[in-house]
Design goal:
elongated, about 25% strand, FAD/NAD(P)-binding domain, alpha+beta, six-stranded antiparallel β-barrel, binds flavin-adenine dinucleotide
Length: about 450
């Protein structure tokens, strides 16, 4: 007898695959109690030597595990057009269920600003450990270092009906193996941070077997900028900033939030959550932005404050006063560079000697620090890649494919846009749990 036959095969041991595999095993365990002849076996195939590599680096190692918005309708507003497809799945396993799942397994969660929830230990590894225990206790057979290299599909009903997956080929430590199952769950993730194993294999398989797949592009991703002054501020974080984006000089949209300067450009939640709109704007023309570090003050109020600072420092050199104006220590040197580049005002003159027109120019510049967007950073820096299997082709109440009779799809493989803030992992818990619960 072929020992490579299973009831369910889950491909991909990331966030959604671990949740799905554990859930299948749990459901099977319950079924086994009811019927002693129920012998269900779950196989989890993972390409990497270790499971959950991306999960372990989420939230900068702290893991923003979900977003504590308990009102499902409110929550789903963050998933754009996909929200309307997700209600039923989130009713089965929503935010409250995520809290219960992890807290009942000894992982208390805490809620920070913007309702972002984290493990109280602030360790992504602790989140992973809960899931590893869940799959192991369920008796899931785990094969790591086992990349799936081929999906074998058969037509059913002599080619008139749907297709089914019969088996998958895997090049594991024991050489190439063929594994058979009644049902398959694809949980191979998207295409961001490929060093974690998510290399987009699932997108190719889904396309090959007849699904429509929107090509992945980096979605929650930092922005590359052309401006040297920005790079001089690498490492500085500014809270509660406002940024306005323009196409060919015409204002398009604005956002508020935390901004991080990096050696390649701009990052932080404010930028990550602007990136997919910026991606849409880039083909339309030159995209520029203006950072307003003082969004709570209008131009008049800001100028009044600057006059106050100038009055208190009349005999100082202008460049030595900038530090009293900018919102973060260390920011003055970048602003100083910018001012000298555009020849706005002589920074070596005494404050007393600054003319009114020069002061006004300085005020206008500081309220709208100019940036030219060179593009989006690549998949290697993206939190999530956009794209994935079209939701019309998945029964989102069960995660079951409408094209392949015995296939379920979870997590980043689904074409669902969402911002940062715990929404991605919640999607993994929901889709993993729902697929896992439905597959048996
Ligand atoms: C740096 C970073 C930080 C993030 N922080 C957060 C956060 O704090 N909160 C949040 O909500 N989201 C966060 N995300 C997004 C979140 O991590 C993803 O949405 C989530 O991990 C997707 O889970 P998944 O199960 O779909 O796929 P993945 O976690 O990508 O797992 C897919 C698995 O499939 C395996 N695999 C791929 N191909 C094969 C194959 N051929 N054979 C076998 N196995 C294969 C991979 O090795 C991988 O282990 C972050 C992402 C990144 C990159």
């Amino acid at each position: 007898m072929n020992s490579n036959i299973y009831d369910v095969i889950v491909i991909g041991g990331g966030a959604s695959g671990l949740m799905a595999a554990g859930c299948v095993a749990e459901v099977m365990k319950k079924a086994r109690k009811g019927a002693s002849n129920f012998g269900g076996q779950v196989l989890l195939l993972e390409k990497n030597k270790k499971l959950g590599e991306k999960l372990k680096i989420t939230g900068g190692g702290r893991c923003n595990i979900t977003n504590a918005e308990y009102d499902t309708r409110e929550l789903l507003k963050h998933y754009g057009d996909a929200g309307k497809f997700l209600f039923s799945a989130f009713e089965k396993f929503g935010v409250k269920d995520t809290f219960d799942f992890f807290q009942s397994r000894g992982l208390p969660l805490v809620i920070e600003e913007r309702k972002r929830a984290f493990p109280a230990s602030h360790k992504a590894l602790d989140v992973y450990n809960v899931l590893e225990k869940y799959v192991k206790e369920g008796g899931v057979i785990i094969k790591t270092g086992s990349p799936v290299i081929k999906i074998n599909v058969n037509e059913v009903n002599g080619g008139l009906g749907k297709k089914i997956i019969t088996s998958v080929n895997c090049s594991g430590p024991d050489g190439e193996q063929e594994y058979f199952a009644k049902k398959f769950i694809f949980a191979t993730g998207g295409a961001s941070h490929q060093e974690t194993g998510s290399t987009g294999d699932g997108f190719n398989w889904l396309r090959d077997i007849g699904h429509t797949v929107v090509a992945p592009t980096p979605s929650i991703v930092p922005l590359a900028v052309a401006d040297e002054w920005v790079k001089k501020l690498a490492g500085i974080t500014l809270e509660d900033m406002k940024i306005n984006f323009y196409v060919d000089g015409v204002k398009n949209f604005s956002k508020k939030g935390r901004l991080l300067f990096t050696h390649f450009g701009l990052s932080g939640p404010l930028i990550l959550n602007s990136a997919s709109t910026v991606a849409d704007l880039l083909p339309a023309g030159t995209v520029t932005a203006a950072i307003d570090p003082f969004p709570t003050e209008d131009l008049g109020a800001f100028e009044k404050r600057i006059i106050g600072v100038f009055d208190g420092n009349k005999n100082k050199i202008l460049k030595n006063v900038l530090g009293e104006i900018v919102p973060a220590a260390g920011m003055a040197k970048g602003v100083e560079f910018l001012i000298s580049q555009i020849d706005l005002v002589d920074l070596n003159k005494q404050v007393n000697d600054v003319r009114v027109e020069e002061r006004k120019r300085l005020v206008r510049l500081l309220k709208a620090l100019p940036v030219t967007i060179a593009g989006l950073m690549g998949d290697d820096r993206a939190v999530v890649s956009d794209g994935g299997v079209s939701l019309d082709e998945i029964d989102m109440r069960t995660m079951k494919s409408k094209v392949i009779e015995n296939l379920y799809v979870t997590g980043d493989l689904l074409h669902i846009n969402r911002p940062s803030g715990g929404y991605s992992l919640q999607l993994c818990w929901t889709t993993g749990y729902v697929a896992g619960g439905e597959v048996v």
